[in-house]
Fold:
Amino acid sequence: MSSTEPPHHHEPMSWRRRVALVVAAFVAIVAAGWVTAAVRTLQGGGDGVSAMGPGDLPPIPDLPGVGVVAIPDSFAGLSGALRFRALSAAEALAVPGFVRVHGERAIRTPGVYAERRPADSSTFSLIVERPFGAKRGELLNGYRLGRWPAERAIMARNYFNPAGFVEVTPDNVALPLSPHFTLGDFLTHDQRAVWPKYVVLEEKLIDKLELVLADLRAHGIPTRHVVVLSGFRAPYYNDRGVGEGMARGSRHQFGDAADIIVDDDDDGRMDDLNGDGRLDVRDTGPIADAIARVERAHPALVGGLGTYQATGPSGPFAHVDVRGTSARWESGWWRGRS
Structure:
């Protein structure tokens, strides 16, 4: 059924009116530009480049409010020992209260946001990452990272490029990640004079390590001091072939692997964990047993275990990762995989 309402006839717009509208639109655009520049200046971003995006993106007003950030219990991990969470911008936006407390600009400003957990008054760090896309070639802000395997060829899902990087500065390098580990423990061992540095961190790795240490303590092995011999290794460093485990697909590049020793007496060497009076690769046995028990109890943390003979003054060590599939090897030689 058609409408019987008579059609409307519009008078053609005059040339003067068209010009007036164009001028008004231009004035509005210019005014908006001045407001944008003023906001950036007030926020300390007068160079026109946002913290995480190109300079032509409009800034989001930084309007922090009053309130608290609700840290989900799951952020503490299966061990209950985690004191940090690395977040992309989208993940930070989803944390209850984060934007209300820190302002919307915080979701794209890399850094550490310390929160107080009301339950036990402990400090929990929310770390907003710098996205992977901010890397230019091999470099990110002058820090050399290299190219990940998936930048060179099609790779399996657990070898995809990392989502982002934790930015490490002299001010946060000692940040506690858990009772036994700090942010600096996982840095690539190079470019010592370059700041900021960048690291890929996987919470599940630190969670698994804390569970393994708790298991060792439950079996009578003291673990007050643990040393990470190698944590995150940037691809360019990994490609240099320095030390053990420098495979092109090394899990160290993805932030989910660590080479560790238990050094409770703090002498810089692996302890005599099996109590036989000798220091050799058999001292990694108790660590391997603990990892097996943890993986049985928590299948989500399944991964690789490599046991290595001494390659330096620190003695034998164990490689631990959370790749998602079980893998076992000794001194670099595969023993089996499931």
